[in-house]
Fold these 4 entries.
Entry 1:
Amino acid sequence: MRTATAWFDLYGASHQNKTNKLIHWICIPAILLASLGLVQAIPHPFGAVPGLHWASICWAVCLVFYATLSWTVFAGMLLWGAAFMALNALIASTGVSLAAVSAGIFALAWAAQFYGHKVEGKKPSFFQDVQFLLVGPAWLLQFVYQRVGIPVETRPVRA
């Protein structure tokens, strides 16, 4: 069973280089935005229910993981996901293809991430455990929380 702190320590071990860290500060949010955008662009049967689409359902599943780490991480990730889905809705409302914009952002951000890990000299953490794909955004969030004085309570989660 791992706590949020244990996940963050493991993730941080392959994110020590300043260049790689900077790339991650830019690209993790971009990948999250693009991932949600790609899923949000999938046609759905939910009609006119505001905010209900495949991305919101997928994000709700991800939030279960964040809730097992920490309620403060859960709250931050809830807001982060909601903001990104609203931004994606805004992008889609302009008439451009949300799927195309998201695919471009996704590809560029992942290319940059892999470059960052080449500079770091370590493989991305998700090669070790796919759950690190969810840990990355929370890892950034915990630095923001530290800066503003919000504690990241931790509780064990099944490994």
Entry 2:
Amino acid sequence: MHAVDMRRRRFAAAAAATIAAIAGATGARRSLAAPKDYTVVIDGFAFKPAELSVARGDTVVWRNDDPVPHTATAKGVFDSGSIAAGASWKYVAKKPGRYPYVCTFHPIMKGTLVVR
């Protein structure tokens, strides 16, 4: 192998290590997985599934299959407002945590969104 090729390889390896160190120090490393979409169906005065776990950046759609309006409300985190019968509302999960939510019109309806 030529000396020039060896120097290029060493330089490339050193550059890659430096970039990885900077990315790790700044928190720039992120999952390369593409965001996913999930659906919570509102049916029979219930959120289905009652608990959903998603990753930060994923989108959750609440689809109202009941004949009356509902909400998906996690106080201080998200609030769909009124979701009419046959309509839907979406939310992009931003901050990790466990977020219990209710329908403000029908407080017996409860669900939990877990963001990892």
Entry 3:
Amino acid sequence: MLLIAISLLLALVPLAGIGWILVSGTLFTVDGLFMSLILLTMSGIVGTTALFEVWQWRKGGGPSFSPSLGAGKASSGSGVERGVVESVEFYESGVGQPNKSIVKFQGKPPAAPFLVFEGDMRNALPVGQRVEVTFRRAAGYNVLVDVSYS
């Protein structure tokens, strides 16, 4: 709600600048016309963002879909997985994207046989080792928090 109030305030500030241009009588000069267009554009962009935020807030407070991959507890922001590491495949992503590792555990049901982690997990999760992995969920992947070897 605070973001909406700040956005609405920031949408009104350029309109006050246009009011000043009208009062000063420079609206029909080149400087006045271009400044008015720039201020209207700024006000329109911030105002549209504020309206979108109001629409999202009235709809339910934010996006209802947050993707996450992997096994474990689906509803919480973290999880624990136990098992023997069958394979760890490392994939380098493009510039600006995190690298990912896909870790497959032995004997897991076909519905959730693997976890997707951010970064290189080849050294942290050795193949054939029994592990207990604690992780937290991020957008589309998991972040390794702790590993216990047994």
Entry 4:
Amino acid sequence: MEAKAITRHIRQSPRKIRVILNEVRGRDVEDALNFLHFSKAKAATQIEKTVRSAVANLMNIDTDTNVNTEDLRIKECYADGGPHMKRFRAASMGRISKLNKPTSHLTIVVSDENN
């Protein structure tokens, strides 16, 4: 059984989020949460929240079956690009310079199958 959690419009570029995602991909959920909780990266807090949400989604899918959280693994995780916030900033000689503030969408799939 598997469950998915999506966090949208994270105010960080997908490239920076993928660096941390590559560390937790395929790990056990407990091991990944431990790594993310003590990581200093800004992306780690958003990834940790999304992993916890995916685990909660898995537990709420079917309340009749008993899901053991120790058997869960991160099956898939990826960060896609979101909309860019386009801003302007003052530049020299009365001109403006363009600022591009990227956002990203984070998707994490948690599964209890051994693959």
